[in-house]
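Schema walkthrough. Field components (list of strings):
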Amino acid sequence: MTQEEQINQLFRQRVCWITDSGPEDDIAISSRIRFARNVAGEPFPIRADDETLCRVRNEVLECIRGVSAAESFRVCEFEVDTLSQLDRRFLLERHLISREFMNPRHGAALVTNREQGTFVMINEEDHLRIQVLAPGFQLKSLWDRIDRFDDLLSGHIPFAFDAQYGYLTACPTNLGTGMRASVMLHLPGLVLSGQIQAVLQGVGKLGLAARGFYGEGSQTLGNLYQISNQSSLGESEAQIIDRICAVISQIIAHEKKARMLLLANRRDFLLDHVGRAYGLLKHSYLITGEESLNALSALRLGVDMKMFKSVDIHTVNELFLLVQSAHLQKYSCRELEQEERDAVRASLLRKYFQD
Amino acid sequence: MLCQNCNKNEATIHVQQIVNGQEKTFHLCAACAAKKAETEPELQSFNLAEMLFDLADKVAATVGQDTSSTGKTMVCPLCGWDMERFRKTGYLGCPDCYKTFSALLSGVLKNMHRGCTHEGKTPCSSTDSRPSREIASLRHDLTELRKELALRIKNEEYEEAARLRDEIQSLTLKLEENEKK
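Field assembly_structure (string):
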């Protein structure tokens, strides 16, 4: 099967963190943990030549094949540097690759399981970026999964490790555990009630970072915020996860309260916000990606607050993915210009909300 | 918060400067910050890595260490990465760089993290699954042999490659036996 066919298969494949239910998934869309790991004795990707990068890639791929065969889960492999820009964009929208991988080096690769809940970027900033992703707020069960997978890999790959500094990473910001744990939160209540800036500032003071939809350096869209740990050295993984979980639980409680207060005190404002968004999604003939993500956010709020009986929350999640540009082009099976995309997006949404 | 220049994108760069009691504040998106940097010197070369190093230098200076004389000429003996590149990019070149630049790193790490010593898991974390020395060395040998095998195949030295393949097979069996124990 060619890489493009594999990508098209991934497009049709169920995405576990979009279609499955998870704890607190009315507010927490997904949880993610990533480990940064490097092969001992090899220069980091920034310093390595193409030959070294390809050798590292082949070694890592071979090891992952071995581990996944023993665990009997099926994986797809992609040489990211040979993919088209559209296919890379598609993987970015699925959160399988980072923005850095949009301009990949030679030897850049991605391995993912079919459900796209466990995957490894090879030769991004570090030799390995091991990631696990699940619906809702469930960092602790994700930790068990990634810890085990990491142990299996470390049985075959000698990871660069130092007793004082822990796992050695290309950038000292990831040193130690090499771990970043994050939860993607949908916070329209806090945005509508004007409390979001205060909450985000609080998050910063507690040593956590808030990022936009596509991670580092991206802007916020659709009231989605990714909250993650800033530091990775000096605390164990369990301590970091406990710290994040405590903050996330509080933010979720704040968001719930904000929604209830909006319903109690500004009912018409809330209904108008949701109703207009629904109208936009149902009746537009041209709609931009940003406009549709913001409208879908409002609709999701309405669904969470039981304003719609006919719309399912997983459908809204799926649409969050489908309205993005590469997904739209995969959906139409061809490349689309900007205005064409807006038309196709609107027609897709009209079709979804016909009844 | 939206970018104060274009009012479209989310502001991701926030700079506040107080010069002679006069406050100057910028809330900009990355694109506008890049444009504005041409006219506003305080936005030029906005670089987190450099900021952290400046901070580390100041900390070191107050405790009487002179990082500038030791640090700037330092070069990693293994990969050739130097202080200047570390400073510019914020990246190190290889695992060994952590030894080379350790004197400078301690200051930087204090600003970034909650401690300077690793507290978390170790490769093959639980003590009962920690590989014995023999297993570790077998794994190391296998990795080296595989590297050499790839090289021989590339150079079309098939006789040597066949010998290596057999050696890898026998070592793999030995490793599996050891792992079962």
